[in-house]
Amino acid sequence: MTRLTPTRAWAATILFAAFAILPMITQALGDSYLIVIATRILAYAIAALALDLILGYGGMVSFGHAAYLGIGAYAVAILGRAGITDLGAHMLAAIAVAAVFALITGAISLRTRGIYFIMITLAFAQMGYFFFVSLSAYGGDDGVTLNARSTVFGQPLLENNTALYYTALALLIGLYLLAVAITRSRFGRVLTGARENPLRMQAIGFSPFRYQLTAYVISGCMASIAGVMLANQASYVSPSYMDWHRSGELVVMVVFGGIGNLLGAVAGATIALLLEEWLALLTRHWPILFGLILVLVVLYSRDGLSGFFRSDRS
């Protein structure tokens, strides 16, 4: 379970402080493209954080979490086309639709366990994917380019890449603190207990299903916010955000950073995407190298990258 120990608190402070000063570094280097990459990393870090909340603490291996990225992204596109450009409205719409979708699909999916849960979450995500492919008004499979980014109180503040970056960073920090608070609460302890032994939790008076479903809905809502930020970062939305490959990438990020470690999920998303950018410069066959690195990390640390920094590693 995540505890905000002094060591972990310092690690979180250092990581987020590094993110905070990054725009100053990019300005000094004169490379504005780094801000674009970093904003994408922050958005995926939010999505990985959301997935780790149910994967690491609830034992729910969702292979369809990319559906919530797509819901968030299309909330921006659809409302923007209707003349509603406010970022707050986009996030509220994304959260509302994601909550309903997660509530319905989660209530069905949580009736299953193991590989069946994985496959049914994948199936629901693919249903969402093909639904948006069929929306010819929004480009179908080709997607749609946004006319403009979301506005803040009617002002186009997010047209500035640095402003968009700091907005994504603020959302990541806020959602990280929320996730830490959830996992440290009685709710989080019951969720972890349901992962370890659902029958015992039921015997002492708790309903694992209700806690797991609530966590699933919260996680979906958090991931939808990542979709809102991705849409603004790319100024483009397509059904590919919901593809099962994207869900697989999120699982890899969580495993890479360390399952059940919220800060590890953020770090895993960061390092995975940085490796992707760097290895792609070396060879077009970069997935092979990335896969090799992932295998080595998993073989030598049961807690992903975060395991290498544990003082009690065996």
UniProtKB/TrEMBL annotation:
It is a multi-pass membrane protein. It is found in: Cell membrane. GO terms for molecular function: branched-chain amino acid transmembrane transporter activity. The chain crosses the membrane at residues 40-59, 66-84, 90-108, 115-138, 163-182, 209-230, 250-274, 286-302. GO terms for cellular component: plasma membrane. InterPro entries: ABC_transp_permease, LivM-like. It holds the Pfam family BPD_transp_2. Keywords: Cell membrane, Membrane, Transmembrane, Transmembrane helix. Its main location: membrane. This is Branched-chain amino acid ABC transporter permease. It comes from Paracoccus methylarcula. The lineage of its organism: Bacteria, Pseudomonadati, Pseudomonadota, Alphaproteobacteria, Rhodobacterales.
